[in-house]
Specification:
This protein is of the alpha/beta class. It is 37% helix and 16% strand. An eight-stranded parallel β-barrel has the order 3-4-8-9-12-13-16-17, surrounded by six helices. Strands 5-7-15-14-6 form a five-stranded mixed sheet, with no helix packed on it. α7 packs parallel to α8 and α11 crosses α12. The longest helix has 20 residues.
């Protein structure tokens, strides 16, 4: 028996949790929908047998993958990280609010680092790997957790000028059937059930999410952001993502960016790319703002005029085809210090029975290995446009980064920093692996 299995077993027995594991696990996998009865029966048999082995002390090394899945869906994911066992970093059973103060996954005792430094957005950082604007950087607690695990380029989750609730749960689901990349520009029709699972650390992980860009009230997020900024060291850079809304879109973007600057942000990222914001008029899900070049440029121009000249500005884009990207980048380049992309790819997402994975909204954001090809294609074209133009800007690349090789591919394409969301969700220690394998060579 491995130390991990032994210590987990001892804690479960000590807390009197073993006998209740089957019921707790089944409650978790049926939290947002019911698997076919045959699948549910198979789950029950597997977990009941596991509980018997744990109770009798016969659990072995081969039980760790199942034990990890069981504890995650049984509501005991915190035990996994506490004992150094790899697990998804976000508790999909709990609400967005509950997750803000509760990062999951193991936390390294010693932060990985290398001696050299890289330049990004006029600042100096350690090995340039990070986590983009997403729920994995939703609070000071998450920023501290990610810094400890070696993530250096962090973007604080998108905030708004007024409180905004999350979409109805579920919000994040594994897309276990998506184990290869789409082609650039390909549409995706994804089948994903809320009880799906991908083993932590898998380089072929994909996921779908539909949070709707929730945000606390400015008074709350500004105070938390100030604490998060104080938590980063001289090897890290914390950007802050902002979003505007309403009839005065550019004005609201600027007002929110100014609030971030007031809270201490030295770099603001404009979320022009989100593919899963609900249209409250009832027409469904809005397309990314960056598909409208004139509206995008108007927002960026307004924000640039509003911010202090010393505050860095980054525009985040979704995947754009050749015509759209070539038309937009020369207009943005003189206004920004960096361009980030891609976001998740807007996709139609349904359960295996044909119903919507996310209640009331068939469109959601696809990430992970499924978008690796589009991300690399976008990065190469973005770098080529930068090199051909007259204005210098840094490129923050992301999409499909689930292992050191996929980090290296984007960095070799000319990115100045690389970020990972689905990869960091499935493997909170991915930064350490990239630093260990690539830190002395790039």
């Amino acid at each position: 028996m491995t130390d991990a299995v032994r210590t987990l077993r001892d804690e479960l027995v000590g807390r009197g949790l073993v006998d209740g594991l089957p019921a707790a696990f089944l409650a978790g996998v049926t939290r947002f929908g019911r698997p076919p009865q045959a699948e549910l029966d198979a789950f029950e048999v597997q977990v009941t047998d596991l509980a018997r082995r744990l109770g009798s002390g016969r659990a072995g090394d081969g039980d760790l993958p199942l034990l990890t899945r069981v504890l995650f869906f049984a509501g005991h994911a915190d035990l996994l990280g506490a004992h150094g066992v790899l697990s998804p970093a976000y508790d999909v059973l709990r609400s967005f609010r509950d997750n803000l103060a509760r990062p999951l996954g193991p936390r390294l005792r010693e932060r990985p680092t290398v001696d050299r430094r890289w330049t990004l957005l006029g600042r100096t950082v350690g090995f340039p790997i990070g986590v983009p604007a997403c729920v994995l950087n939703g609070s000071e607690a998450w920023v501290r957790h990610n810094v400890a695990n070696g993530w250096n380029v962090l973007t604080y989750k998108t905030v708004r000028g007024r409180a905004h609730p999350p979409n109805e749960q579920p919000n994040w689901v594994f897309a276990a059937r998506e184990t290869a990349s789409l082609g650039p520009g390909d549409a995706a029709d994804v089948v994903a059930d809320p009880w799906d699972w991908v083993e932590p650390g898998s380089a072929t992980v994909s996921s779908v999410n539909s949070f709707g860009v929730p945000s606390p009230d400015p008074e709350e997020w500004m105070a938390d952001l100030s604490r998060a900024l104080a938590a980063v060291g001289d090897e890290q850079l914390l950007l802050v993502s902002v979003m505007g809304e309403g009839d005065d879109l550019a004005g609201d973007f600027a007002r929110t960016a100014l609030l971030a600057q007031e809270a201490g942000a030295t770099v603001v990222e404009l979320n022009l790319s989100c593919p899963n914001t609900l249209d409250r008029s009832g027409s469904g899900v809005k397309p990314p703002l960056c598909l409208d070049a004139d509206a995008t440029v108007a927002v960026v121009e307004h924000v640039r005029r509003s911010l202090d000249d010393r505050t860095g500005l980054v525009a985040k884009l979704s995947w754009l085809d050749e015509q759209r990207l070539s038309a937009l980048v020369p207009r943005l380049a003189p206004l920004v210090d960096g361009i980030a992309g891609i976001n998740t790819v807007q996709s139609r997402v349904r359960r295996s029975d044909g119903s919507a994975t996310f209640p009331g909204r068939e469109l959601a954001g696809l990430s992970g290995i499924a978008v690796r090809g589009p991300a690399l294609d976008f990065t190469r074209r973005l770098v080529a446009l930068r090199d051909a133009g007259g204005a210098r800007f840094d490129v923050l690349a992301m999409g499909g980064v689930t292992d050191p090789a996929s980090f290296e591919a984007l960095f070799a394409a000319g990115a100045d920093a690389v970020q990972s969301a689905a990869g960091a969700f499935a493997d909170p220690l991915l930064a350490q692996k990239c630093i260990t394998e690539l830190g002395e060579t790039w």
